[in-house]
Amino acid sequence: MKICHLMYDDIANPWLGGGGAVRAMELYRRLASRHEITVVSGLFPGAELETERHGLRLLRVGSARSYALSRVGYCRAAVAQLQRLEWDLWINEFSAFAPLRVPAALRRQGLLLFYHFMGLHALAKHPLVGGVAWLCERRALRAYGRILTIAPSVQAHVQRRAHDAEVDLVYSGVDRRFFALVPEEAPYLLYFGRMDVHTKGIDLLIAAFADIANGHPDIRLKLAGRGTPKQLARVRGLVRRAGLEGRVEVIGNVEEERQGELLRRALMVCVPSRYEGWGMVAVEAAAVGKAVLGTDIDGLRDAVRHDETGVLVPPVVVGALAEGMRA
Questions:
Q1: SS3 of residue 86 by DSSP
Q2: Staple 266 to which of 21, 79, 190, 297, CB 3.0 to 4.6 Å?
Q3: End of a domain among 169, 186, 214?
Q4: CA separation for the pair 71, 179 (Å, rounded)
Q5: 236 and 305 both lie in a single domain
Q6: Is 262 helix (H, G, I), strand (E, B) or coil?
Q7: Residues in CB range of 54: below 8 A, 6 or more apart
């Protein structure tokens, strides 16, 4: 079968490189020996227009001049690239900030991959274009007859919005290397994920840690994961303004081995997101035997079993996060 997957993100994209891109690569490298797979994504600095990875054909479209122009260029060029290719199945991995205008005839032949609901958070993240992103999210669910999600709570939410669509679910897997790690306990809490302050709730986490810091002087907070220099500077600014420079370590991107070490030695893994599709780090932490402090939102309430693999608290409530840390 010839499969064409349209997704803005790429695991090598320095502006993003999120879990959706990792999931796609992990799935497709396992399918590449049996199927002909092409992934069309956004262009970024240093990227080749066409290359191969794990047996997949990767095509990049748009502009590498800036993150904003990269997304706009992808929106303009991705569907045209799809129309030039041969495929038996095509997939639109929906992004509210890189929505695709797809002709109805193509939509009828395609599958919408929908990770999470952003809702009005789009306006909080990017006020100038957030309204457009919010509207595109609502319209996308009514435009496709076949929709794929990755978590039961998201699937149920989609079914309430897209009454006439066939909505299926395919979970994300966990790398076996996490199960082989031997857990220990060092005096720190861990956040591991993209340095996206709003989406991932990093501002809430720092505020919650500030609330407990004086009462737990031996405990530190470590923040690790991918981020642009601008994102990392913003996180360090939050730490500095909270007066926590000696207690919070902003590590940034790490290789797989360091990630494993950070996870296996943490007291607890914190996932304070405002919205999620699944929360891969939550199940990775569970594989290592580490408790998760997460927010009770779509996706995470599937990835974390409350009072079994972790604790779920109300979203966007600093006091609740702080109480979860004390527990």
A1: coil
A2: 190
A3: 169
A4: 36
A5: yes
A6: helix
A7: 25, 28, 29, 32
Tell me the per-residue pLDDT of 94-137, one tens digit each, with 9 for 90 and over. 998 899 999 999 999 999 999 998 887 888 888 877 888 888 88
**Alpha carbon 253 to chain centroid distance?**
15
Predicted pLDDT of residue 264: 96
Euclidean distance between CA atoms 290 and 70, whole angstroms: 38
| 143, 204: one domain | no
Do 234 and 315 reside in the same domain of the chain? yes
221 and 101, same structural domain?
Answer: no
pLDDT of 42-97, one tens digit each?
Answer: 999 999 999 999 899 999 999 999 999 999 999 999 999 999 999 999 999 999 88
Residue 288 domain boundaries: 176-326
Our CA angle for 184, 188, 193, nearest 5°, is 95
Instruction: State how many domains the chain has.
Output: 2
CB distance 308 to 195 below 8 Å: no
Residue 123 sits in the same domain as residue 193: no
- Contact residues for 261 (Cβ-Cβ < 8 A; gap 6+): none
Tell me what pLDDT residue 213 has: 96
CATH of the domain at 112: 3.40.50.2000
Query: Cβ(270)–Cβ(205) under 8 Å?
Result: yes
Q: What is the 3-state secondary structure (H, E, C) of 2-58?
A: EEEEECCCCCCCCCCCCHHHHHHHHHHHHHCCCCEEEEEEECCCCCCCEEEECCEEE
Of 169, 187, 205, the last residue of a domain is 169
Q: Is 245 left (phi over 0), alpha (psi -120 to 50) or beta?
A: alpha
110 three-class SS = strand
According to DSSP, the β-strands at 56-61 and 50-53 are antiparallel
Same structural domain, 74 and 158 = yes
Q: Are residues 203 and 270 in the same domain?
A: yes
Task: Enumerate the H helices of the chain as residue ranges.
Answer: 19-31, 67-84, 104-109, 121-125, 130-143, 152-161, 197-200, 202-213, 229-241, 256-265, 280-288, 300-303, 318-326
φ/ψ of 43, rounded to 5, equals -75, 150
Who's near 142: CB < 8 A, 6+ residues apart?
A: 161, 162
